[in-house]
Amino acid sequence: TEIYTLSLHDALPICVLIACFLVFHNRMSANEAVHFVRSKRPGSVQTTPQVNCVQEFEKFLKPYRVIFYKQ
What is the Cα–Cα distance from 66 to 71, expressed in whole angstroms? Predict the structure, then answer.
C-alpha cells in the first residue's frame, strides 16, 4: 500500500478553513466570511479556487440548515 502525505502546497490554507468554520458556526455567507477573514488577516484567502472552496462549502451546507438549526 502507498502512503500519501500532504505538503503545505496540497493542504488548504488555514484561513480558508477558518472561513468555512464561520460559514458553518456563525451562519455567515461565504462572501461575508471571506471578507471577515481578509479584514482580520490581509492577504489571506488569495486565490479564486480558495474563495470557490468556501462558496462550495456554503452550498453543501444549505440542505442541512434545517437539521443543524441554531437558536
Answer: 11
- How far out from the chain centre does Cα 39 lie? 15
CB 50 within 8 A of CB 33: no
pTM reported for the whole predicted model = 0.75
Region at 45 (left for phi over 0; alpha for psi -120 to 50; beta for the rest): left
Residue 50's SS3 state is helix
Alpha carbon distance 38, 17 (integer Å): 13
Residue 58 φ/ψ, nearest 5 degrees: -60, -45
Type of residue numbered 71: Q
What pLDDT digit, counting tens, does each position of 45-67 carry? 888 999 999 999 999 998 887 76
